[in-house]
Design a protein that fits this description.
Order of helices and strands of chain B: EHEHEHEHHHHHEEEEHEHHHHEE
Structural class of chain A: mainly beta
Order of helices and strands of chain A: HEEEEEEE
Number of domains of chain B: 1
Radius of gyration of chain A: 15 Å
CATH superfamily of chain B: Thiolase/Chalcone synthase
Helix content of chain B: 25-40%
Largest sheet of chain B: 9 strands, mixed
CATH architecture of chain B: 3-Layer(aba) Sandwich
Shape of chain B: globular
Shape of chain A: globular
Largest interface: A-B, 46 and 42 residues
Oligomer: heterodimer
Strand order of the largest sheet of chain B: 3-2-4-7-1-8-11-10-9
Number of helices of chain B: 13
């Protein structure tokens, strides 16, 4: 549980957030070309097909890059700094912005294996996918 | 079809960046700097038939019309450019393209921002420290608001720190090598009376002993927000003889937009910086090594290092060693950001990105005084918006 900026959810992205609430990391996959668009799209970012099917991802990935933010990037994160903000590359391919939680920030490194975790946002019903080191 | 030699920059004006501009309105700042640029070119308001501006806080829409009326001009080409830090450079080729297309003959490119100053009671509020509450964005429905902001990917520090982390992982980079960029640029600012940090010296130790804001970036590697304005006059080749100033010819331009959210950015060896730069050099039929000045967008030290490689000035992975072994000042063997860069000149919103363009053009015109690069024939100006999302490159030449 932590205070955060609450994401504005649209009908296109709702299955992603419903999955997070169940503890699943949901990705779209294009039925025509196999591409996995992220963030969720109405049409495939590669071939333009509208045939996008939702599937649960493995939740496993590696840290592509990260930073330790010593100052709150927004006042809402004031009591959470230093915090690790990272781009994780999922085993399925897409990269997404996230936080690495429950870690010593100084021990985080590019290339480390991570797995999805799920954290409810304070003052909200939204559950946010985050990652922890494995 | 090419823009090469179709138009030139003949007038330049800039308000020295300040921390705050008090109650001055943005329209006042823009009309002041616009009038100065028109006068600098030796033109009159009636000569201006093109206007390029950018989105302005406090003006909900109709920005070109609002600015044109305030300035007292009636453009036949009116354009809004929204490319973040690439906006200034993006304005210049659009002005040249409009001129080449016959839509106008002389175009005013206008950038600026105001900063009123921090309300006195803000500090007091901070010391009271109420527990943070989650906040819901009321207007921003962008994918970034949905998939980046909840994690603290807000503003630019986090993104550029992640670029520095990844770059260091791939190629190796010393903190002292990043700091060298800030130090050499400060020496340039020391020779530029308009630079915000004109009167202050800077050492590598100063940079590395400043607070780490986002690992690995120190405060003195991060641009300081300022207020100010900058304007350029772009005119058609056949009007150049009417201008008071020597022309800085627009010889090449390139642009690239690759993403919005940083998580969706290309790998660091395939960014839009390279796409835009190669296009600009190709149009001008020149090579990076032909440039006598590199005016490269420097919101952060790491951005300069990445751009040196991606734009083709330095082989991949060698930017750190390159800046260590070269003198990047106006008097050095690789003049870079001779105005001080935004790190030392000041980043007045979109006028910050424009400062790389005004400096390149002014250097080509031979009007840079103490920091003039002697015998300069070709200069490269580069703009970068978002988290390496929007890129625009311009090649300027002393000869058409």
């Amino acid at each position: 549980m932590s205070a955060r900026v609450i994401p504005p959810i649209s009908p296109t992205t709702q299955p992603y957030w419903e999955g997070a609430a169940r503890g699943e990391l949901m990705l779209q996959q294009c039925s025509a070309c196999g591409q996995r668009p992220f963030p969720p799209h109405t049409h495939c970012e590669k071939c333009g097909s509208a045939e996008l099917a939702w599937q649960a991802a493995s939740g496993k990935g590696t840290i592509y890059t990260y930073t330790i933010s010593y100052r709150a990037p927004h006042p809402v994160f004031r009591d959470q700094c230093p915090m690790v903000i990272a781009v994780v590359e999922l085993d399925e391919g897409p990269r997404l912005m996230t936080n690495i939680i429950e870690c010593d920030p100084e021990h985080v490194a590019v290339g480390m294996a991570v797995e999805a975790a799920f954290e409810k946002i304070d003052d909200s019903d939204v559950v946010l996918p985050v990652f922890r080191l494995v | 079809m090419s823009l090469k030699g179709a138009a030139a920059v003949v007038g330049i004006a800039e308000l020295a960046p300040q921390r705050y501009t008090g109650d001055a309105s943005i329209l006042d700042l823009l009309s002041q700097v616009g009038a100065e640029a028109i006068a600098d070119a030796g033109f009159k308001h009636a000569d201006i038939d093109g206007l390029v501006v950018h989105p302005i806080g406090g003006l909900p829409g109709f920005v070109p019309a609002t600015v044109a009326e305030y300035l007292g001009i009636k453009p036949t080409f009116a354009e809004l450019v929204d490319l973040g830090g690439a906006t200034g450079a993006g304005m210049v080729w659009r002005a040249a393209a409009a001129i080449q297309a016959g839509m106008c003959t002389t175009c005013l490119c206008l950038t600026g921002t105001r900063r009123r100053g921090r309300p006195q009671n803000r500090k007091q509020q901070n010391t009271e420290r109420p527990p943070p509450r989650s906040i819901a964005p009321t207007r921003d429905r962008s994918p970034a608001a949905e998939f980046d902001s909840p994690y603290g990917m807000v503003g630019a520090n986090v993104g550029y720190a992640m670029i520095a982390t990844r770059y260091t992982h791939e190629y190796g980079l010393q903190d002292t090598q990043r700091a060298k960029v800030a130090v050499d640029q400060r020496k340039n600012a020391n020779a530029n009376p308009k630079a915000f940090f004109h009167d202050q010296q800077l050492t590598i130790d100063d940079v590395l002993s400043s607070e780490v804001i986002c690992q690995p970036l120190h405060m003195l590697e991060i641009v300081m927000p300022a207020a100010g304005a900058a304007a350029l006059i772009v005119t058609a080749a056949d009007r150049v003889p009417d201008a008071k100033q020597k022309p800085a010819w627009i010889l090449g331009a390139g642009e690239s937009v690759t993403h919005s959210s940083f998580a969706q950015a290309p790998n660091l060896d395939a960014t839009g910086i390279g796409i835009a730069s190669r296009a600009a050099f190709n149009m001008a039929d020149v090579k990076p090594g032909d440039m006598g000045l590199a005016s490269l967008y420097d919101c952060y030290t790491i951005m300069v290092l990445l751009t040196l490689e991606e734009a083709g000035f330095v082989p991949r992975g060698e930017a750190g060693a390159f800046v260590e072994s070269h003198d990047l000042t106006w008097a050095g063997d690789f003049p870079l950001n001779t105005h001080g860069g935004q790190l030392s000149f000041g980043q007045a919103g979109m006028a910050g990105g424009m400062s790389h363009v005004t400096e390149a053009a002014r250097q080509i015109q031979g009007r840079c005084g103490e920091r003039q690069v002697p015998g300069l024939e070709l200069a490269y100006a580069h703009g970068n918006g978002g988290i390496i999302a929007e890129q625009t490159g311009l090649v300027f030449g002393a000869s058409r």
